[in-house]
Amino acid sequence: MKTHEDKADFLFHENSVTAQVLAVIGTGEKAAVTSKQIKQSFGLTERELRKIIEKSRRSGIYILSSENGYFFPACIDEVKAFIKRENARIRSQCITLSPMKRYLKLFDSGDIL
Fold it and tell me: What is the pTM of this model?
């Protein structure tokens, strides 16, 4: 597995802002950097930052997040905690969508005009 520094160097050639963002992210939750700090440092919008994080994660860079901010994992327990939080968030979104899906089925069946 490549180190975070190797991956940041690779991304530098593709997008220097991405490499700069990755360079300020610390290792371990105690070294997390907030989205506010990153956005202010690089003049990014919330959407731009989320796209950078998403693209980096999809390219294989292990960026975790918590209420403390973004960070690289220092141990496997941090990865497990991140997965648990994300799964809970996904379950909550599915529960929120359930009534809308039921409504759509009623609408599609003609029971609601």
Answer: 0.78
